[in-house]
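Renewal narrative, Specific Aim 1. Our central claim is that a sequence can be written position by position from structural information alone. The example that follows is taken directly from our test logs and has not been curated for this report. It begins with the structure tokens describing the chain, in the order in which they were read.
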């Protein structure tokens, strides 16, 4: 697809390059790969979903078959079709480029970021709702629209919590890996149905949930928070950013994102890709983008029947999430939507930043502080997730119908 760079971004890029010699854009090969990736999907998983979930077997039976294979292993499912065996073979193969130590170091970064990772990541996601290619699938699938917005966020948070457990993503049969494959299948199922929907314009948008768009979510879990959370006291070193990039690259492999030719190896390359995405925005989502953006933060508001500590807790998270959107959405994008002011949340986030910075410095000289910091961050994140989720079980459902 042809991507058009905005004149303002191009002028800034040229000015910075002239003064400093630094190019804000990625190289020509990466830009070409990014454009091509907007048309690329996940052929292996697509073949499986077409044969099973969208074929004669049907969604319910296909889901049972997938659950059985994840529970007992594909080799113990004699009725598994070849497309399913191919999917599991690809999923279970650890690529040659994977460095287990780097994967674990990257997971440790996520454990230190904890709840903040999800909050800043979601604010960044809301900032992308300017794009119809991202907003249309989310609107049609419905997970992040209306009253269900918080439920889908909790579902995604469950995946985040599982994949950053020590050793989880490289342990065969782990919950983290099982959820990752379900997410991959769910994405493929949604992609096929959105692509066939009359609201999808393939000429304008490319492919729903494309390789390039999935890569943006990987950057939203690595260089994005590494850069943004610095203002809130989190001091992530360049070597830690390289580790979390490597961790996210492997997560991408698990969920069907193959972007080797454009995936960044360094902090700077990741920021260049984010700048290039911003430079090529179309700002064409219209009301769909507003619906998605305006659904999320209000979903944290106390329920009508809430009283006492539960109500105060909900209000705290409502203001905190609003504060993240005020800090991490681009102001001109944020102004296009009706969102809570976020000022109380900003005050809380800025107020605690010095204390976080002290801990971040201490963890570099005292290993015990680092372990304590990771454990505490994860405990608080899990406690928040359990409080909001209650008895609800995340489904990662590939059979859920589109909302319209």
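The sequence written for that structure reads:
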């Amino acid at each position: 697809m042809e991507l058009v760079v905005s004149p303002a971004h191009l002028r800034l890029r040229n000015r910075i390059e002239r003064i400093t010699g630094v190019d804000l854009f990625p190289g020509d090969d990466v830009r070409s790969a990014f454009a091509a990736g907007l048309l690329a999907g996940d052929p292996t998983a697509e073949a499986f979903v077409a044969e099973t979930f969208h074929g004669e077997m049907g969604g319910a039976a296909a889901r049972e078959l997938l659950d059985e294979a994840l529970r007992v292993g594909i080799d113990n499912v004699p009725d598994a079709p070849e497309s399913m065996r191919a999917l599991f073979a690809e999923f279970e193969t650890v690529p040659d480029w994977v460095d287990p130590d780097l994967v674990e170091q990257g997971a440790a970064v996520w454990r230190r970021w904890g709840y903040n990772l999800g909050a800043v990541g979601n604010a960044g996601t809301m900032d992308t709702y300017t794009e119809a290619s991202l907003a249309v699938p989310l609107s049609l699938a419905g997970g992040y629209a209306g009253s269900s917005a918080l439920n889908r966020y909790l579902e995604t948070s469950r995946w985040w919590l599982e994949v950053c457990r020590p050793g989880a993503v490289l342990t065969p049969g782990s919950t983290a890996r099982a959820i990752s494959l379900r997410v991959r299948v769910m994405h493929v199922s949604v992609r096929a149905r959105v692509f066939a929907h009359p609201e999808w314009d393939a000429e304008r948008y490319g492919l729903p949930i494309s390789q390039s768009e999935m890569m943006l979510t990987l950057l939203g879990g690595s260089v994005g928070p590494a850069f943004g959370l610095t203002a809130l006291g989190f001091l992530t070193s360049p070597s830690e950013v390289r580790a979390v990039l490597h961790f996210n690259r492997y997560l991408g492999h698990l969920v069907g994102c193959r972007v080797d030719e454009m995936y960044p190896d360094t902090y700077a390359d990741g920021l260049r890709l984010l700048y290039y995405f911003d430079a090529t925005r179309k700002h064409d989502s219209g009301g769909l983008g507003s619906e998605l953006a305006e659904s999320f933060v209000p979903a944290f508001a106390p329920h009508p029947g809430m009283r006492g500590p539960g109500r105060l807790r909900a209000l705290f998270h409502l203001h905190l999430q609003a504060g993240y959107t005020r800090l991490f959405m681009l102001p001109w994008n944020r102004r296009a939507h009706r969102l809570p002011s976020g000022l109380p949340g900003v005050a809380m986030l800025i107020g605690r930043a010095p204390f976080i910075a002290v801990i971040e410095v201490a963890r570099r000289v005292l290993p015990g502080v680092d372990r304590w910091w990771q454990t505490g961050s994860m405990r608080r994140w899990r406690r928040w997730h359990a409080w909001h989720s209650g008895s609800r079980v995340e489904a990662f459902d590939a059979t859920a119908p589109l909302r319209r």
